[in-house]
């Protein structure tokens, strides 16, 4: 935990120590993949077509999870970082306003999508990613997080089923 980062009043939770231990990363991704497979089987779905990873820690988890699920990976980035035609959604975070973008052809209508990030706080960034996926006509099947800050009730702002490994 890092108090007053990135600005005063924010208690930042850092997942980077996980990446110092390859066995921990493997266990995390394996756990997520097993959960996703069980969830889609229970829903009668064949597979996840695209894993969407949020800027920036979702970029670390998303491609690894996509490989485990034999799915495509699509990044959702802060405004102005992706080339080509993009779709955009503005959202409010716990410490300001931001915009997310996704390449317009990264997710297609009817595809089943999992969104992954390190932390769920207010649900602003994950909600913005969901809106981008839904704008493309795809289905948000799951929102996955390593840590969820329950007191901020971010899961109430999401349409997908929310799964978090740690709840604080």
Fold and architecture overview:
With 168 residues, the protein is of the alpha/beta class. The protein has 3 helices and 9 strands; from the N terminus they run E-E-H-E-H-E-E-E-E-H-E-E. A 7-stranded mixed β-sheet has the order 5-6-4-3-7-8-9, sandwiched between helices. The longest helix has 21 residues. It is globular, with a radius of gyration of 15 Å. It starts with a strand and ends with a strand. The model has no long low-confidence stretch (mean pLDDT 95).
Summarize this structure briefly.
With about 170 residues, the chain is an alpha/beta fold. The chain has 3 helices and 9 strands; from the N terminus they run E-E-H-E-H-E-E-E-E-H-E-E.
Notable traits:
single chain; 9 strands; globular
- Looking at the structure, what is the overall shape? globular
Low-pLDDT runs: none
Order of helices and strands: EEHEHEEEEHEE
Alpha-beta content class: alpha/beta
Protein name: Adenine phosphoribosyltransferase
EC number: 2.4.2.7
Keywords: Glycosyltransferase, Transferase
Give me the secondary-structure topology:
Blueprint: E1 2-3, E2 11-12, H1 22-42, E3 50-54, H2 58-69, E4 72-78, E5 86-93, E6 96-103, E7 112-120, H3 124-135, E8 139-148, E9 161-167
Parallel strand pairs: 3-4, 3-7, 7-8, 8-9
Antiparallel strand pairs: 1-2, 4-6, 5-6
Helix pairs in contact: 1-2
Organism: Spiromyces aspiralis
EC number: 2.4.2.7
Protein name: Adenine phosphoribosyltransferase
């Amino acid at each position: 935990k890092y108090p007053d980062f990135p600005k005063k009043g924010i208690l930042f939770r850092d997942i980077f120590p996980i990446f110092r231990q390859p066995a921990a990363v493997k266990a995390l991704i394996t756990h997520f993949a097993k959960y996703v497979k069980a969830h889609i089987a229970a829903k009668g779905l064949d597979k996840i077509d695209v894993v969407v990873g949020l800027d920036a820690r979702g970029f670390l988890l998303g491609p690894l999870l996509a490989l485990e699920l034999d799915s495509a990976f699509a990044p959702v980035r802060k405004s102005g970082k992706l080339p080509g035609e993009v779709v955009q959604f503005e959202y409010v975070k716990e410490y300001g306003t931001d915009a997310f973008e996704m390449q317009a052809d990264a997710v297609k209508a009817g595809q089943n999508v999992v969104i992954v990030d390190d932390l769920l706080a207010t649900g602003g960034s994950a909600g913005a990613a969901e809106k981008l996926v839904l704008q493309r006509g795809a289905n948000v099947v799951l929102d996955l997080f390593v840590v969820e800050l329950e007191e901020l009730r971010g899961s109430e702002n999401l349409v997908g089923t929310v799964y978090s490994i740690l709840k604080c």
